[in-house]
Amino acid sequence: MHSHRPGRRYTAGQAIVEFAIAGIVFFLIVFGTVDFGRAIFMYSELTNAVREGARYAQIHPTQTAGIKDVVVNKSPGLGIRAADVTVSCSPAGCQPGGTVQVTARMHFQAVTQSLLGIRPLTLQASAENVIE
Predict the structure, then answer these.
(1) CA–CA separation, 28 and 35 (whole Å)
(2) CB within 8 A of 99, min separation 6: which ones?
(3) Which of 8, 28, 63, 105 is most exposed, with minimal Cβ within 10 Å?
């Protein structure tokens, strides 16, 4: 036989319900924080890769395929392709004294986005250098 104290009823069920409600909120906060950190890391990697591409473009402004390869090779974990990278020169062509701009885009998919109803984010970075 179980002896119960007066004033204390069955609280095991109540604790499970409270944990279920609080646990969902807690895990969303934890995984949201991890997703936010991942997004910042990926944006940083994308920015660094684009800067390297712009440095290469500063010396070789007409080698568009080479510039795109540098950006893709400097960001192996991001999964970007050459089609995600654009190269443009201004004001008039890729001549010394002009500027070259390298831009890359990628889609970031968060772990918690389906739970929160968030669409995938598009991360974009660009860098610009003067052509030598």
Answers:
(1) 10
(2) 89, 90, 91, 128, 129, 130, 131
(3) 8
Distance CA 41, CA 57 (A): 24
Give the C-alpha separation, 37 to 63, whole Å. 34
pTM of the prediction?
A: 0.81
Amino acid letter, 64:
T
- Which string of b and e fits 58-86 if b means at least 16 CB within 10 Å? beebeebeebbebbbebbeebebeeebbe
Tokens of 12: 């095991």
In the chain, where the domains are located: 12-130
Q: Percentages helix, strand, coil for the chain, rounded to the nearest 5? A: 50, 20, 30
Please tell me the distance from the alpha carbon of residue 78 to that of residue 60, in angstroms, as a whole number.
24
What is the tens place of the pLDDT at every residue in 41-78? Answer: 999 999 999 999 999 999 999 999 999 999 999 999 99
Q: What is the largest CA-CA distance in the chain?
A: 92
Q: CA of 91: how far to CAs of 4, 40, 94, 97, in Å?
A: 85, 32, 8, 9
What gap in Å lies between CA 15 and CA 47, rounded to an integer?
Answer: 47
Strand partners, 99: 90, 130
